[in-house]
Design goal:
The chain contains 4 helices and 4 strands. By secondary structure, it is of the alpha+beta class. The chain has a single domain, classed as Glutaredoxin, CATH 3.40.30.10. It has a 4-stranded mixed beta sheet, with helices on one face. Strand 1, helix 2 and strand 2 form a beta-alpha-beta unit. The longest helix has 14 residues. The termini are far apart.
Length: 99
Amino acid sequence: MQRGSLRRALALAFKRTHRGPLRRVVLYEKPGCGLCAETFRSLSRLALEMPIEIVRVDVEREPTLFERYALRIPVVAANGRELDAAGVAEHALRDFVAA
């Protein structure tokens, strides 16, 4: 690799390295849910912009979670708040996670 290419690669890596505290975002979902998959893709794109850790929770594995979230999934939880994320635009999801 040439010296200029290495510098550009390091500059790009530095630019994409998140600064600040890592925020934990929980996605309550279940297998086979298209809206859940769409929400996860949106969160993954947001993770490129801001320092977030996405924790995926399958509500079908625990009866209490299933009872609470079965009709609401996908649900995104961050900073002690919850958002019913079905059909939510990515910019609204960004605002929710950032707040």
